[in-house]
Amino acid sequence: MHRFTTKETKHTDQKRRLKLWYIFLPLLIVAFYFMASSVNESTIERQKDSLQNAINKDIIHCYAVEGFYPPSLTYIKEHYGLTYNEELFTIDYQPIASNLRPDVTILEIGK
Q1: Percent composition of the chain: helix, strand, coil (DSSP 3-state, to 5)
Q2: Of the candidates 101, 84, 78, which has an alpha carbon nearest to the alpha carbon of residue 49?
Q3: Burial level of 70, CB count in 10 A (0-12/13-18/19+)?
Q4: Statement: residue 2 has pLDDT above 60
Q5: Do 81 and 61 form a contact (C-beta atoms < 8 A)?
C-alpha cells in the first residue's frame, strides 16, 4: 500500500505531526499547572480543617481535665503537644475568661 507514497508526502506528514505537538504540548503544560494548583489549594484547606479540629479537641480536653480553658496558645502547645506549620498558618487565640470558651481564628499566611 505504500508504493504510492513519496518522500514529499512523508515529509508533509512529519510536519503535520510536529505542528500538532507544538499545539498539544503547551495545552498539556497549562492543564497540568491548573491541576497541580487545585490539588495544592485543597490540601491547604484540609490542613486548616485538621488544625481547627486539633485546637478544638485540645481546648475541650483542657477544660475537662483541668477545669478551665487554656489561657494561651502557648499553654496548649506546651501541655497538649499542639504542633502546626507556623509558616503557613497563624492562629489568633483570644481568651475571654477561665470559664468561657476562647475565640480562635486560623488564618493562612500570604493569602
Answers
A1: 65, 15, 25
A2: 84
A3: buried
A4: no
A5: no
pLDDT bin (cut points 50, 70, 90) of residue 52 is very high
Please list, in sequence order, all residues whose beta carbon lies within 8 angstroms of the beta carbon of residue 80, skipping any fewer than 6 positions away: 58, 61, 62, 70
Q: What is the C-alpha to C-alpha distance for residues 52 and 104, in angstroms, rounded to an integer? A: 9
Q: Which residue type, as a one-letter code, is found at position 17?
A: R
Tens of pLDDT, residue by residue over 60-111, are 999 999 999 999 999 999 999 999 999 999 999 999 998 999 999 999 987 6
- How many residues comprise the chain? 111
From the number of C-beta atoms within 10 Å of its C-beta (0-12, 13-18, 19+), residue 55 rates as: buried
Among 36, 44, 37, CA closest to 88: 44
